[in-house]
Amino acid sequence: MGVKLLLAKAHVEGIKNYDVYRREGGYQSVEKALKTMTPEAVVEEVKKSGLRGRGGAGFPTGMKWSFIAKPEGVPRHLVCNADESEPGTFKDRYLMEHIPHLLIEGLIVSSYALGSNDTYIYIRGEYAWIVDILEKAIAEAHQNGWLGKNILGSGFDCNIHVQRGAGAYICGEETALLESLEGKRGNPRIKPPFPAVKGLWERPTVVNNVESLAAVVPIINMGGEEYAKIGVGRSTGTKLISACGNINKPGVYEIDMTISVEEFIYSDEYCGGIKNGKRLKACIPGGSSVPILPANLLLKTAKGETRYMNYESLSDGGFATGSMMGSGGFIVLDEDQCIVKHTYTLARFYRHESCGQCSPCREGTGWMEKLLLRLDKGEGKMSDIDLLWEIQSKIEGNTICPLGDAAAWPVAAAIRHFRDEFEWHVLHPHEAQVRNFGLAHYADPLQVPAGA
Amino acid sequence: MSDEILLKVTIDNITVEVPAGTTILQAARKIGGDVTPPAMCYYSKLQGSGGKCRTCLVEVSKGSEKDPRPMPKLVASCRTTVMDGMEVKNITSPRVLEARAGVVEFLLLNHPLDCPICDQAGECHLQDLSYEHGKQGSRYEFQKRTFKKVDLGDYIQLHMTRCILCYRCVFTADQLSPKREHGVLDRGDHAQIATFIQKNLHNEFIGNVIDVCPVGALTDKTFRFKNRVWFTKPVNAHRHCDKCCGEVQLWLRGDEVFRVTARKDEWGEIKEASNGKTGWICNECRFEKKNLADWIIEGPTNVNRHSVISQNKYVGLVKPTETFPKIMKGRNPKLLMDIHSVSEVNKPNIHLSQLERPAHSTDFNQ
Ligand SMILES: Cc1cc2nc3c(=O)[nH]c(=O)nc-3n(C[C@H](O)[C@H](O)[C@H](O)COP(=O)(O)O)c2cc1C
Ligand code: SF4
Ligand code: SF4
Ligand code: FES
Fold this sequence. Notes:
The complex is a heterodimer of chains A (452) and B (366).
Chain A: H1 18-23, H2 28-36, H3 39-49, H4 61-66, E1 77-82, H5 91-98, H6 100-114, E2 118-123, H7 128-143, E3 159-164, H8 174-181, E4 205-209, H9 210-222, H10 224-229, E5 231-232, E6 235-236, E7 239-245, E8 251-255, H11 261-266, E9 280-284, E10 293-294, H12 295-299, H13 311-314, H14 318-321, E11 329-334, H15 339-353, H16 359-376, H17 382-395, H18 403-427, H19 431-434
Parallel strand pairs in A: 1-2, 1-4, 2-3, 7-11
Antiparallel strand pairs in A: 5-6, 7-8, 9-10, 9-11
Helix pairs in contact in A: 2-6, 2-9, 3-6, 5-6, 6-9, 15-16, 15-18, 16-17, 16-18, 17-18
Chain B: E1 6-11, E2 14-19, H1 24-31, E3 57-62, E4 75-76, E5 86-89, H2 94-109, H3 125-133, E6 150-152, E7 156-158, H4 168-176, E8 182-185, E9 192-195, H5 208-212, E10 218-220, E11 233-238, E12 247-253, E13 256-262, H6 283-288, E14 296-300, H7 324-327, H8 339-342, H9 361-364
Parallel strand pairs in B: 1-5
Antiparallel strand pairs in B: 1-2, 3-4, 3-5, 6-7, 7-10, 8-9, 11-12, 11-14, 12-13
Bound molecules: flavin mononucleotide (FMN), iron/sulfur cluster (2 copies) and FE2/S2 (inorganic) cluster (FES).
The site of flavin mononucleotide has 26 residues of chain A, from helix 4, strand 4 and helix 18.
């Protein structure tokens, strides 16, 4: 059993309720921080912990906090990103549903560290019932003196507000989120200025993922240095992984980032192997936006080393032969899955979710979707594959926000690793409608280049 | 402000000095010519505009004197401010040219290419952009997205199919009118400019959206199909108006006023009026003063670089081998390259490129 910090108590009977949560040691980090630490010391502790943002980009949280501007007389805000809409990602939902007070506790400590008197949770609109759970938890925290004026006599005031989104994936992008929170259309802002300088209502703002903010609780309780000892390298602490696809035990798992990908997929503690005894074909390890990997590159890096479930190892080999930890949405595909159809499905999602502000993303995502649909239906041409490659390369890096990249990468990775499957669809249009390309050679051991 | 600190920036090997806070695009405009990146969405008079169309992307090969590292991605020059010692590559960067050609292809992807029946033809920035920066032909083989035409009140027509979503009109409506009733609905490639429940746009200054629109998506209903831009002769004129500056450009044919617009600078933006403010004009001046007697004529307007009148670039270009009929439901666009040989309202026997000077309506009234 690996270390569990976030979900250790998630299954204690009644943990959703304040009394049980408090009895199990809840809100200790608030006492510790507000009574014995300065805000700067809290930031320092988070820096020492090596915590990296759990929302997708993996940016060090302590460093992000230290960038927040502190102009005289201007309020600052902490905003919790609970918009979780990336296909394959459902870890924040699990955390908020099962142990909502952990998030509220993390928010209070983090608000103290950043000097945010009004803190917001922006939650995905479809998570309607979770809004009630969170509001109940907030009300309980108020009643027990953890929120409101002069918390624990520290002189620090804090209120937490929950705001529901209206169903747009793009509102998970932090600046689109801020626009939406201000009541405007959720278009990503052009940066700079960054939210740390001009965020919500032009005030200095930090946006963090639910899991990142929940992780502040164990960090303060155990100390940043102790937290940093869990895990490996720059992948410290624990990470929630939402596993889905063709596996025996889909669900949310907390891992300490020292286990291998193989163990994660096949061990009974986690995914429990591929369903129905099928073979593993491919996997998207970090949510729909990160590159897909064929089985052989997933389990071992191009250098022939075991691949682990952590930031460094998953991205080993760059985009040529690696992928990313992303948001921890782990999607497993077995030998019966068609990569072309799968890529089309993702392209359809990104076309639908593009905000439409910048031309490469607005027009390119629609074009890619149409080409992929045509290929999937067996009506494609060989040149379509090259055209897809070109379109994605024209989108990537040329857009306002990373959704453009997120739409380009899955297409690029699918063509990079599964080109023969695309070609097969062109060459055998009829066959491609009645059967799948199968596992083919995608699980074959790779030749490790000499000197690697 | 003589002791203002100037920053040095080098664009395509030409150095200029500009005050802090200047964007790369503004610095490039100071140099002028080919070094200036095309800008389809940025509009210096509209706060918050720019950053969207991505035609103005440039490569920053040196960040600044202090931090010489190059910027990893291409940046939108309209929204990136210069640093001292910055080095920028525009037309000297193959990466930029590639990306820009890509952007042009994206912008034209769903564009109807209906220039022969579009009132904007001849002064359309998208037309210019595609001639100057695009590649021949489209690789798009699907049906284009279309919208129904909508009347926004009595004066303005919205032809959303032509829109490139530059948001200029949204900023204009927002910044010139007290009540917001014009914005963007939906998202992605189905996003559209819209007013709430097809509301009439009543504001006195709303006509300016026509002038800021770089394409023919917002057009003047009082001018629709009346004439082609290049047959009319622009003159500067003014009248006393208690609503706006009253300084306009009249588009004449003979003594007839076909159209009234604001005055524009060489970048196609509305100029400053003599009172030092941006020369937005009111609806009354724009739509209701169509008699020459309403105006005091100052003299002919210099034809700017955006005008088809002063160019001969449309002649002699090879028509691409195209898939257009396929994607346009069998319809063949009348115009692809050579406006003057196919346009119905034109006189093809008059070869514009052979005139030594800008053509005037008199050339066509012969
Ligand atoms: C299109 C798009 C969608 C995103 N959706 C989410 C989301 O649902 N939840 C989230 O935490 N971060 C999301 N992000 C990342 C956020 O922009 C931001 O980086 C993150 O909230 C920062 O938190 P962290 O530093 O704690 O990871 C998204 C980014 C993009 C580009
Ligand atoms: S990349 Fe896509 S989602 Fe992001 S701002 Fe541009 S159009 Fe909108
Ligand atoms: S209607 Fe014209 S000004 Fe408005 S967004 Fe479209 S192209 Fe731009
Ligand atoms: S002009 Fe710069 S992005 Fe449009």
